[in-house]
Amino acid sequence: MKCKIIEKATDMFLKHGFKSITMDDIANQMGISKKTIYKYYANKEMLVEEATELTHNKIHEVLEGIVAKDLNAVEENFAIRRMFDDLFSSADSTPLFQLKKHYPEIYEKVICKENESCDQLFRQNIEKGIAQGYYRKELDIETAVRFYYTLILNINETTALEKDSQALELLALEYHTRAIATPKGIEELEKQLQINHNN
């Protein structure tokens, strides 16, 4: 029952927002009593925290699958971008924006985890792109990683609507790629932008 509760709660939080969904809403959707939820979760904050943990784990499981496909570096970044779009396509508002506004302590924990994960992911992608000839060899990798992470984090923290966030993140990916790409990388970027446009 606990697994069913957290899965339903996570789905509802991501679709409608952490603040707007109540314990009553979750109980009603599941056809159970609120008392049953409180048997496993003493308060809503505990439920929100576990929902963010579940989402984090799900994202990184999918990310590992994308990286394992051994796509070229530019293609990989676009595959990751599409994964996030698909995962949060039904969400009204940006999850990080909601957490920062309504659950700042949980938000800080999420950011600590994401900082480390994104740092590693971005660095690996840049190193891969340099080795493949898609990114410039003379790049300062640490600076490129920091710039891109700052862009993406700022978009998620300050953009309320998920659809606006997704549009900005695609622009940020294009900006990031153009800044570090070789002519070969630019050619692949244009290809990926065309594929994205057609979809």
Summarize the structure.
The chain is mostly helical and 199 residues long. It has helices at residues 2-16, 23-30, 34-40, 44-68, 73-87, 95-102, 104-132, 141-158, 162-180, 183-198.
Description:
With 199 residues, the protein is mainly α. The chain has a single domain (44-198), classed as Tetracycline Repressor, domain 2 (Orthogonal Bundle). Helices cover 80% and strands 0% of the residues. The chain contains 10 helices and no strands.
For the record, the count of structural domains works out to: 1
Task: State the end-to-end CA separation.
Answer: 38 Å
What is the H level of CATH, i.e. the homologous superfamily?
Tetracycline Repressor, domain 2
Give the low-confidence spans. Answer: none
Secondary structure category: mainly alpha
Q: What tags apply to this protein structure?
A:
199 residues; 10 helices; Tetracycline Repressor, domain 2; mainly alpha; elongated
Lay out the secondary structure.
Blueprint: H1 2-16, H2 23-30, H3 34-40, H4 44-68, H5 73-87, H6 95-102, H7 104-132, H8 141-158, H9 162-180, H10 183-198
